[in-house]
Amino acid sequence: MRLRTASVAFLLGVLCTGLAWLMAQPVLLRLSDLVRRLSQPGSAERAALDGMRHLLPLYLAISLVAAALLAYGVLYVTVLRPLRDTEGAIEQLGRLTSGGGLPFARSGAGPLLSRVQSALSRLAEALRAEQATTRQQLEELRDANAQLSRTQTELLASERLATVGRLAAGVAHEVGNPLAGILGYLSLARARAHDAQMADFLARIEAEVQRIDQIVRGLLDLGRPPRGATGPLALRPVVESCIGLVRKDPDLARVEISDEVDPALVVRGEPGPLAQILINLLLNAGQAMGGRGRISLAAAPSPGGVCLHVDDTGPGIPQDALPRLFEPFFTTQPAGKGTGLGLAISQHLAVSMGGRMAASNRKEGGARFTLELPRA
Description:
Layout: H1 2-38, H2 44-95, H3 111-192, H4 196-223, E1 231-234, H5 235-246, E2 254-260, E3 266-269, H6 271-288, E4 292-302, E5 305-312, H7 342-352, E6 356-361, E7 367-373
Parallel strand pairs: 2-4
Antiparallel strand pairs: 1-3, 4-5, 5-7, 6-7
């Protein structure tokens, strides 16, 4: 841009100097003729006139350079520098950078460039305001999308539970009565069995039948509506009672259980369903750790109520299992060791009390189950 400005200034200098010399040429020629007629050949005036004629090209070159420099200075101040500032501002607008003002602090630009700079400045402010509004809307959309995803997940889980409940209501009586009869006959057969191997076979059959009965009862629990009205409930006594009950379980005999629940925390819930949830979480943690490790229970207020965390030092939850952990019949335990209904029933009970459950992996290792209940 500087080279172009210098070229334009040179052309302007040539044009101005040429016009000036053309306008002054008749006067100079007349003065030269007058001096020639008045002066004698060989006189000092004649010699001075000849010297002046020889210096005219030098004067012309000096005038041309001076005119070109003057034109360049005027163009630089009034055109080149404002255009460079405007170019930088347009590049900044293209990048949509935030913070700081546009480089329009210099004065000396013409009226047209000043108006262009003012328009660009207003455009920049409008773009920044629009950018801030867009960022805020994007954050709101992300939050709304996350909330919508959670709601859809909960709706799908509720729909599955409702389907299972309808299925359980239809087959519970058809399956429950024959199971009760089978268990009765198995008890009679075991009482009359004198062969040890036969008694072992009957005991295994009875265990499998009881497992079927447990599955049917779990289905009935999923299909049942909330058992009663919730009310204020001290959290610490329920936690202590559940810890005392599970300590007798073989899977938790060598597991250290710590209780860090504040006695002042009061939630809105029911003692029976809450105890069922906690016992299920404690037993699952003991089985995941293989009977060795540490379980810690801690509770703290949260925006939604009170959060109770059950942490263990086990291997954690596989990432592919986290989205399906609360689905009915889904289990991470080996075949024959789990029905996949414990966490689904616990989630159903938590929702019936106005709360919810969540699962995650801890950075230190192990799993964390969070039970959130409304504050009383």
